[in-house]
Each structure stands twice: as C-alpha cells, then as structure tokens.
Amino acid sequence: MAFLQLSGVEKFFGTHRAIKGIDLTIEQGEFVVFVGPSGCGKSTLLRLIAGLEAVDGGSLMLDGRDITRLPSAQRDLAMVFQSYALYPHMTVAENMSFALRLAKVDKAVIAQKVARAAEILNLTPYLERLPKALSGGQRQRVAIGRAIVRAPKVFLFDEPLSNLDAALRGQTRVEIAKLHRELGATTIYVTHDQVEAMTLADRVVVLRDGAIEQVGSPLQLYDQPANRFVAQFIGTPQMNVVELAELPMAAAQARNAAFVGVRPEALRLTDAGRGQIAAQVELVEALGAETLVYLHTQRGAQIVLRQNSRTSLAAGDAVGVDVDVSHLHLFDTEGRLLATAH
Ligand code: ATP
C-alpha cells in the first residue's frame, strides 16, 4: 500500500480554485519534488499535506492513517522552510532539540539525537552558537537538523535553498541528496528550480495552475514529456519548439502535428547550404565546457543549439543545422504530445 496517498485533494482561496483534485501516491523512502512556475500551487499543496492549510475536498492518508483533518502537530511530519525560522535567543543545540524538549523526551535521548544530527550535518562545532553567529548555509542546516531529530514519517521542504547564493545552493543541494541517501526518509521538496528538481528527485511532479501535468523520473520527463509545457519547463536551455513548417520531414511521424520539439543538443552545426535548416547566428555563449549558439532560421524561428566543443562562429554568420530526427517531439495545436521519436 502507498505510504502517502492524496486523493482528489482540493483547495479554494475564496472563489479561486488553487488546487484542482490532486491524486498522487508516494512510496516510503521516495524523494519527490513538486516543481512548477510561480503560483502553480506547489507550496499550497505542501502546506495541505503539512496540515498548515485545511483541505476543501478529497483525502490524505499517511502510513494507513487518515490525516485529512488531523492538526499539523499530530501528523508526524517535519517541515523545513525557506526562512529558517530559528529561535534567535536559542543556541543551535537548543533550536534543534526544541520540539523534543516540548514533548518531554528523556534528556539523554535528546542529547544523543542532537549529537547524531549535528554529526550528519557537520554542525558539531557550532552547537553552542546562536543563529546570528552562523552563515546562511549553516542556519539552513540547523533548520534541517531540527527536522531530523524528530525522526518524522515525512520530511517536507519548501524552497529551502532559495535564500542561499548560487555556490552554497549547489553545495547544500548535494548535502540534502546525501542526507536522503543516509536516512532513507520519505521526502517531499518544493522548488521552482528545475535543476534542483532534476538532481534531487526520484520522481518529479510537474504542476501548473493547481493541477498535475506529469509525474515521472527526471529522465522520463526529459526524454518523454507528456506535453509542450513539460517539454519546455524541464531542461535548460529549454527545448526548441517550432512550427512544423520549419522541419517538414518530421510531418511523416504524426498526423495533426502542429509543432516540433527538439532539444538543443539534438541539433548540430554544419556549413551554410547544408543540413535541414538554414539559419543565421544571433549570439554565441561560450560557457567553457559547452557552447550555446542562438540562431534564427530563414523562416523566422528562434532556436538554440548546444555543443560540447567551442566555435569560431560569430553573430551574423550563415550556417546550416543538422537535426537528429530520432529525437523529435511532435505536438498538436493544443500542445499535447502526439509522438516522440527515440
Ligand atoms: P511560488 O513559487 O510563487 O511560491 P507556488 O506554486 O508555491 O508559487 P502557491 O503559493 O501555492 O504557489 O499559490 C497558488 C495560488 O494560490 C496562487 O495563485 C496564489 O496567489 C494563491 N494563494 C496562495 N495562498 C493564498 C492565500 N493564503 N490566500 C489567497 N490566495 C492564496
């Protein structure tokens, strides 16, 4: 049986239907990421699971127990927020042990749990410090430590890294992945950053306008997006989606196709006059390990190409583009997937 089961979950804010009948099953030990553009409802969905918002319809089952109407404190979940929400007058150890002390857990047990969490999170040298004497990354680790000591059934993370700078975000992301491997705890993680979603998740749930667009492993979403929205949300730079007329040879793969999607790495530069597409270079981004070449086609579409080698091309140069036709995605006028060539 599923560990956490959401059935027909609904949420209204006034007349606005923010969450539209979500069905989702999460297994024990899974790392599930909710991702989607701003306002799609991912934080609301997490808060409904946490019990911080009341559901207006549907049900939530956790480990065989109906938690739909249970107060947050009785759900056996721990949430880590973007704002770390640490108590400023308490030391790291006191912050981490707060919930256990409140629950009157034995002192020796608390000390042991805090020591273990601090060890996992590399916080042992900081246990007696106040939050103000810590870096942003260390504070975020304390907030995670506070969740770990409670050994909850599910960890809930709401954009925990968005206050950190890029380098620290990358580093903390790796730590969260390691932590999940060590603890094997069921985790739900909300982010608008699709790279975080791809690198952390066992399964990604892509949300839009309060509904699920697709659920799958990161590479399933990348290779077999269910529609144009998912195709262009997952992957940077995003998938090129052009009118079928740009790539007429793709038409044979599906009737009713209106648009063709092709990832930047499925395109290859060739000499002007060769390849399936005639184009002109608009911009070259040399990133070192890879090069992004932005082009506009003779028919007027903007496309981007990714290659692992460098280029001497410059803006204005005429080029040809070879398309790997075994990696095309065909969409109808509504953006629904009709066929994927693989
Ligand atoms: P972001 O990445 O910007 O945080 P999100 O996907 O987490 O976005 P939510 O915060 O879940 O989005 O919001 C979903 C929708 O519900 C939005 O349209 C938002 O304006 C609305 N909403 C969220 N909380 C409330 C509230 N307390 N009252 C009224 N509307 C709300």
Protein architecture, described:
The longest helix is centred in the middle third of the chain and has 18 residues, at 166-183. The strands form 4 sheets. Strands 6-7-8-3-9-10 form a 6-stranded mixed sheet, with helices on both faces. It has a 5-stranded antiparallel sheet with strand order 13-17-14-15-16, with no helix packed on it. A 4-stranded antiparallel sheet has the order 2-1-4-5, covered by helices on one side. The chain folds into 2 domains: 4-229, Rossmann fold; 254-340, OB fold (Dihydrolipoamide Acetyltransferase, E2P). By secondary structure, it is α+β, with helices and mostly antiparallel strands. It has helices spanning 42-50, 92-102, 107-120, 136-149, 166-183, 194-200, 218-223, 228-233, and strands at residues 4-13, 16-26, 31-35, 57-62, 65-66, 77-80, 154-158, 186-191, 203-208, 211-216, 240-243, 259-262, 267-270, 277-286, 291-297, 302-307, 318-323, 329-331, 337-340. Helix 2 crosses helix 3, helix 2 (92-102) packs parallel to helix 4 and helix 3 crosses helix 4 (136-149). Helix 5 links the parallel strand 7 (154-158) and strand 8. The relative contact order is 0.12. The chain binds adenosine-5'-triphosphate (ATP). Residues 13, 18, 36, 38-44, 192 line the site of adenosine-5'-triphosphate. Adenosine-5'-triphosphate binds next to helix 1.
